[in-house]
Design a protein that fits this description.
The chain has two domains: 32 residues; 69 residues. It has three helices and three strands, in the order H-E-H-E-E-H. The chain has a three-stranded mixed beta sheet, covered by helices on one side.
């Protein structure tokens, strides 16, 4: 199973983003956020496998992967497009386990 968008889904996403931009541009009375994030998560797996996927994405987007900005050890690669941010994030298994325990 491919965890990311296939070619058709990717095309619909890109079309949807363009439609949103055109709509906001044509309707200045509609509030818009000051910034927005596009988040991508790797398939669940071992921390090493997820972090390796983030490293591969970092290389593709010309970024450095790091967990420096995350107190919970989320490993990410970020590329900014002005106030729009593309962020690929791997959430370590221990951090997800902690959240699941809190929810119980």
């Amino acid at each position: 199973m491919n965890y990311y968008a296939d070619a058709d889904e990717r095309g619909r996403l890109i079309s949807g983003l363009r439609a949103l931009v055109e709509y906001l541009d044509a309707n200045p009375d509609v509030p818009a956020p000051r910034r927005t994030d596009v988040l991508v998560f790797p398939p669940n797996g071992s921390d090493a496998a997820m972090f390796a996927e983030i490293d591969a994405i970092a290389e593709r987007i010309g970024a450095e992967a790091s967990d420096a900005d995350s107190p919970r050890g989320h490993y990410s690669a970020v590329r900014d497009f002005g106030p729009v941010q593309y962020r690929a994030v791997a959430i370590p298994n221990a951090a997800r386990d902690d959240e699941n325990r809190k929810a119980e």
